[in-house]
Write a structure and sequence with these properties.
With 138 residues, the chain is mostly helical. The chain has one domain. The chain is 83% helix and 0% strand. Helix 1 runs antiparallel to helix 2, helix 1 runs parallel beside helix 3 and helix 3 runs antiparallel to helix 4. It comes from Actinomadura litoris. Belongs to the drug/metabolite transporter (DMT) superfamily. Small multidrug resistance (SMR) (TC 2.A.7.1) family. Pfam families: Multi_Drug_Res. GO terms for molecular function: transmembrane transporter activity.
Length: 138
């Protein structure tokens, strides 16, 4: 479908991961609407969003570590489904549940910030290696 070069994927990986998280939310809500895959239209919507979320996740994981990417993707899906479940279905969102969802959101943000720090460090190390090679006359 789409082709990303290594450099493009590095800059687009996080937005694509967020998109995958959005597809995961839609998938979870469609599964709920399908009532155990007994309602055809919601079942078909669930299948489409399932395929979209797997595609987007696989694109993002080309450059984001699997453990980090999967945790962020799952966190987005879990929080999104928990927050939107009461909007679309007969579910409740209590204060205690909201608190723990906040913990998940904080964890996702922290993972993203940690990845940014590692990326900056990797860029600096690469620049240092390039200077060392130039200085050695190679």
């Amino acid at each position: 479908m789409f082709s990303f070069s290594r450099s493009e994927t590095g800059t687009n990986a996080w937005p694509v991961l967020l998109l995958a998280g959005g597809f995961e939310i839609a998938y979870a809500l469609a599964v709920g609407g399908s009532q155990g895959f007994t309602v055809l239209t919601w079942s078909l919507v669930a299948i489409v969003f399932f395929l979209l979320t797997l595609w987007a996740l696989s694109v993002a994981l080309r450059t984001i570590d699997v453990g980090i990417g999967y945790a962020v993707w799952a966190g987005i899906g879990a929080v999104g489904a928990a927050v939107l479940g009461p909007v679309f279905f007969d579910e409740s969102l209590t204060l205690v549940r909201s608190l723990w969802l906040g913990v998940i959101i904080a964890g996702v943000v922290w993972l993203k910030l940690a990845d940014r720090t590692e990326t900056a460090r990797d860029v600096q190390e690469g620049a240092n290696r390039a200077r060392a090679v130039q200085g050695a006359g190679l």
